[in-house]
Design a protein that fits this description.
Elements lengths: L8 E5 L12 H13 L4 E4 L11 H15 L9 E5 L5 H14 L3 E5 L8 H14 L4 E5 L1 H4 L5 H7 L5 E6 L4 H10 L5 E4 L5 H6 L4 E4 L6 H12 L3 H17 L8 H9 L16 H14 L23 H11 L2
Parallel strand pairs: 1-2, 1-8, 2-3, 3-4, 4-5, 5-6, 6-7, 7-8
Helix pairs in contact: 1-2, 3-4, 4-6, 6-7, 9-10, 10-12, 11-12, 12-13
Length: about 325
């Protein structure tokens, strides 16, 4: 793993906790960030999709980013912890302004999503990301998530962008393994490739990937960091064991509603926050709650709600998942 890659490991795409009236639950957010850091996660992403940024105001964006930095500064691990801010927009000018604001606040990098709704072609996508990189004052992570944006940053386009000195990584959520394999094979030295789908973390690590920006680390930050560390150390048996144990939870986080509806329901069951979301999202439907709770219980995730000392816990000190029980619950939920 080249030492000059600034982004590697497990990065949590933080949820934004809300009160019943829709306002940000500030004390809970601080507690969630502290739990992440104390669990050994490698980085935090504030104001990503999981944070419901489409419904946050600019003032709320700045509060979330600033508070993440503030809490991270409390810990001696801040020097190794990377803080990333989501600053993307379907307006290039807005993305540049947001990236500059995040740079002034002191984050390490910006996560910039491909423009949505406009449906730019590859030439236009390249121009967009180059403009943000050149004028935004931060290293840029290209966020490719065609399922949400309606456009795919193709491998050839991404590889041209990767030559730009400020475009340092991609969060790849295209679910196109041929495309991802091409990027991993042909990327320049120093360019990081991060999984954008939790379930693809281990396969991408096995192909030389650098980690993940993930949803499930909201629930299990320690195990996700452990899986990445094991892979980096060449301990594939441990990495595979962690992946297999938590795979049902990774999948459940995207069942029954769009992200972050299921993960907020899970965090509420774990006693970490409420499951309040902002319209147009609604809380998880009851039909999926029983299945989700069973998965939390059988994997041992429920026990991690109050336990921030999870590093080293995945080697068997907690009870393993009961696959037959999970499979029965899954079948019931989809019946």
């Amino acid at each position: 793993m080249p030492a000059n890659r600034m982004l590697r490991g497990a990065f949590t795409a933080l949820v934004t906790p809300f009160q019943a009236d829709g306002s940000i639950e500030e004390a809970t957010f601080r507690a969630l960030v502290r739990r992440q850091i104390d669990s050994g996660v490698h980085g935090l992403v504030a104001c990503g999709t999981t944070g419901e940024t489409p419904t946050l105001s600019h003032e709320e964006d700045e509060w979330v980013i600033g508070t993440t930095l503030e809490v991270a500064a409390e810990r001696p691990s801040r020097d190794r912890l990377r803080i990333v801010a989501g600053t993307g927009s379907n307006s290039t000018a807005t993305a540049i302004r947001s990236t500059r604001r995040a740079a002034a606040m002191g984050v390490d990098a910006a996560l910039v999503v491909a423009p949505y709704y406009n449906k730019p072609d590859q030439r236009m996508l390249e121009a967009h990301f180059r403009a943000v990189a050149e004028e935004g004052d931060l290293p840029i992570i290209v966020y490719n998530v065609p399922g949400r944006t309606g456009v795919n940053v193709e491998a050839a386009t991404l590889l041209r962008l990767a030559e730009h000195p400020r475009i340092v990584a991609v969060k790849e959520a295209s679910a196109n393994m041929d495309q991802i394999a091409t990027i991993l094979r042909d990327r320049p030295a120093g360019f990081a490739v991060l999984a954008g789908d939790d379930t693809w973390t281990l396969p991408m690590l096995a192909m030389g990937g650098d980690g993940v920006i993930c949803t499930c680390a909201n629930e299990i930050p320690g195990p996700m960091a452990e899986m990445c560390d094991a892979a980096f150390a060449g301990d594939w048996d441990t990495a595979r064991r962690i992946h297999e144990r938590w795979l049902p939870l990774m999948k459940a986080n995207f069942a029954g509603g769009p992200n972050p509806v299921p993960v907020k329901a899970a965090l509420a069951m774990m006693g970490l926050t409420t499951d309040a979301v902002r319209l147009p999202l609604l809380p998880l439907d009851d039909a999926f709650r029983a299945r989700l709770r069973l998965i939390l219980e059988t994997t041992g995730a429920m026990e991690l709600g109050a336990d921030v000392t999870t590093r080293g816990s995945t080697g068997g000190s907690r009870r393993a998942a009961s696959r037959p029980a999970i499979e029965r619950a899954t079948a019931t939920a989809h019946a």
